[in-house]
Design brief:
The two termini are 37 Å apart. The chain is mainly alpha-helical and 273 residues long. The longest helix is centred in the N-terminal third of the chain and has 36 residues, at 54-89. A hairpin with a 2-residue loop joins strand 2 (140-142) and strand 3 (145-147). The chain has a single domain (3-270), classed as Cytochrome P450 (Cytochrome p450). The strands form 4 sheets. Strands 1-4 form a two-stranded antiparallel sheet. A two-stranded antiparallel ribbon has the order 2-3. Helix content is 41%, strand content 8%. It is built from 7 helices and 8 strands, in the order αααααββββααββββ. The protein has helices at residues 9-25, 33-44, 54-89, 91-102, 112-124, 157-161, 209-226, and strands at 134-135, 140-142, 145-147, 152-153, 227-230, 244-245, 251-252, 259-262. It comes from Musa troglodytarum (fe'i banana).
């Protein structure tokens, strides 16, 4: 592979975040962090023979796609891990989800319980506990609070999805909330219902929302359907550590340690069924 095409995803992500964070601290515009990164990269490359050529732009596009892809893949995998942890902790729900999938041959969308499991996972463990920084384009007043123009705004997504006024027993894993007859049957996670906005809402909704949903739900359903998940010897499901590690992403403090036990015929794991 040509050295120009060899990039370190973590290095690019960390570099981008350092520039973004410094710009925040200096009260510069945080409305377009990608633009900040591009301007920084271009200013760094001033004076070089190859400054703003098509080749350079292609490399910048590749870097940014890797930054976005790396972040999106991490949040998706973290959400799947949380879903499996909750299903392992609630074996009765896991068994019902498996039986539901056993009865569906071609249409994974016809999995109301699994869809409810994913929604409840997004609610209980939102991928990003705080939204990315936004900037007030004009002064306004919200619930008696004055917000000046140019103020940096963060939405506390975790607090919204754990508000007992909207979510009875907010710390409990209750997928039935989203099932037919449940209090939140009609609630979705795509930004139209402000009780649960794991991807944000409005014009600033996460651009990777569709990709994230296409990754999380099929992956969680496949892993739940294909395996029984057993904890280390002597550990009871209710004793599974569910401590959260806070940061840009809401991850488990300790990785999920569970043993996958195949429950289907061998051919199912070879792509023959």
């Amino acid at each position: 592979m040509h050295p120009e095409h060899t990039l370190n995803c973590s290095e690019v992500h960390n570099r981008h975040w350092r520039v973004f964070r410094c710009s925040m601290l200096l009260h510069e515009s945080v409305e377009k962090p990608v633009s900040i990164y591009l301007e920084w990269t271009w200013s760094r490359d001033k004076g070089r023979a190859e400054s703003r050529t098509a080749s350079m732009r292609k490399r910048l596009a590749l870097r940014l796609s890797m930054v976005i892809g790396n972040y999106g893949a991490n949040t998706s995998s973290s959400t799947v891990e949380w879903a499996l942890a909750e299903l392992t902790r609630h074996p009765d729900v896991l068994k019902r989800a498996q039986l539901e999938r056993d009865s569906v041959v071609r249409d994974p969308a016809s999995l109301p319980l699994m869809q409810a499991v994913v929604k409840e996972t997004f609610r209980l463990h939102p991928p990003t506990p705080l939204s990315l920084p936004l900037m007030a384009s004009e002064a306004c007043e919200v619930s008696g609070y004055s917000v000046p123009k140019g103020a940096t705004l963060l939405v506390n997504i975790w607090a919204i999805t754990h508000d007992p006024a909207s979510w009875p027993e907010p710390l409990e894993f209750r997928p039935a909330r989203f099932l037919p007859g449940g209090r939140h049957e009609s609630i979705d996670v795509k930004g139209k219902d402000f009780e649960i906005i794991p991807f944000g809402a409005g014009r600033r909704v996460c651009s990777g929302m569709s990709l994230g949903m296409r990754m999380v739900q099929p992956m969680a359903a496949t892993l739940a359907h294909g395996f029984d998940w057993r904890l280390p010897a002597g550990m009871r499901p209710e004793n599974l550590d569910m401590e959260e590690a806070y940061g840009l992403k809401l991850q488990r403090a300790a990785p999920l340690m569970a043993y996958p036990v195949p429950r289907l015929v061998p051919a199912a794991y070879e792509g023959r069924c």
